[in-house]
Automatic annotation (TrEMBL), chain A:
Matching CDD domains: Sigma70_r4 (cd06171)
Residues covered by region (Disordered): 1-26
This protein's UniProt keywords: Sigma factor, Transcription, Transcription regulation
The keyword Transcription belongs to this UniProt entry's keyword annotation: yes
Organism encoding this protein: Micromonospora trifolii
Protein name, as recorded: Sigma-70 family RNA polymerase sigma factor
UniProtKB/TrEMBL annotation, chain B:
Swiss-Prot/TrEMBL keywords: Cell membrane, Membrane, Transcription, Transcription regulation, Transmembrane, Transmembrane helix
Boundaries of every Anti-sigma K factor RskA C-terminal domain copy: 96-233
Protein's name according to its UniProt entry: Regulator of SigK
Domain Anti-sigma-K factor RskA N-terminal as annotated: residue spans: 6-47
Compartments, as annotated in UniProt: Cell membrane; Membrane
Gene3D superfamilies, per the entry: Anti-sigma factor, zinc-finger domain
Topology versus the membrane: Single-pass membrane protein
InterPro entries assigned to the protein according to its UniProt record, in alphabetical order: Anti-sigma-K/W_factor, Anti_sigma_zinc_sf, RskA_C, RskA_N
Amino acid sequence: MPRMSGDPEQGRRLRSVPPDTATPPTADELLQRVARGDEAAFATLYDAMAGRVLGLARRVVRDPAQAEEVTQEVMVEVWRTAGRFDAARGSASAWILTMAHRRAVDRVRSEQAHTNRTQQVAATETHVPYDEVVEDVTARLEREQVRRCLDRLTPVQRESVTLAYYGGHTYREVAEKLQTPLPTVKTRMRDGLIRMRDCLGIEMEGRA
Amino acid sequence: MSADVHTLAGAYVLDAVDDVERAAFERHLAECEPCRVEVAELRETVARLADDTVVEATPPGLRERTLAQAARTPQLRVSAAGASGGRRAGRWRQLTVAAAAAVLVAGGASAVTWTVSNDRISDEQASSDQARQIAAVLDAPDARVFERSLQPGGAATVVVSRDRDRGVVLLRDLPAPGAGRIYELWLIRGSEPRKVGQLAEGDTASTTVIGPVGEAGTFGVSNEPVGGSVTPTRILGTVKLS
């Protein structure tokens, strides 16, 4: 092994290599390569994002087969429209997850009656299939941070945000469910997300 | 920039709006640079909520199907000019100027009131200076928008950049201040008001650059006799800047 070699020059040089090779390309870099037609980059991007896209789709549409269809549609759309991605306007993962959420929400809204779904949401709201959850430490820390920040919201802010995001409800439906006036729900959604943003330390610094 | 449309930012990034509202909000976004920054940040925030839904084992068949379908799907062609960094930056600058113009129009109504410190400069000079100052605030990456209806009527929009230590205040539809009276603008830190501008006699709308913002936590409007007051007689409406 070259590392074991007695040559200190070489040893030093080799030690400096791992950080470069060990750092996987970011989703932003991958997406920019995908935009140039790089299929290998697309496969890597798929591996990096599919777990979250599928998880989100499952949470929103609640049907495993439909969630897979949404995931496939979204990822193919990512491939097709990668050239439109503009890193100055946000991260690749937010771009992809925005598309995924929209697609999942469109599907539930077009396919299911409102009342029907409201009951389903009520029944499954608090149940999360933890057994399927990634045990990767970074992912876990990120998830814990999200939960900690969600916990800092007021109950109405939190419910408004989660019913809309995970439940795929419109703010009108949320207002109905929470028996809260429409303007209040709108405001709570925005205030809640602003509080989340500050808690997560998200800033578009150096962008735009 | 209607306060009502702007509060939709949260519902919009959560996809909790209907198609009509989405279209209305996107029109609003097209002419509101600070709103675009807010929406971009809230999108990143909302995307993090998906961290909590991640699944470890995605079906291998799904991967194969997706990669195969992508391989036979032609990619959308985006013109080289559109994708190049230089052009892109240019477009953003242009949009910013358009956003500043939109703010001016919204604040201007019939006659635009410029309150550029106390300098006696021509209107024309004032307006281009003002436009530049407004653009500088709207352009700031940390710019944030605060909107509120005011107690006596009308509404205030305050865009604040703490980094640039400046703000832009849009007042509109205030009730007539009364004969021999004017509106004055204040930045309040704790309980200490500091005068940052005033409207011309009889004016009920304006676009004003204010600063330094310092650590002020609140913006306020008061009604004063012409000539102004050193301290506000009575603050009629406030906007919290956090």
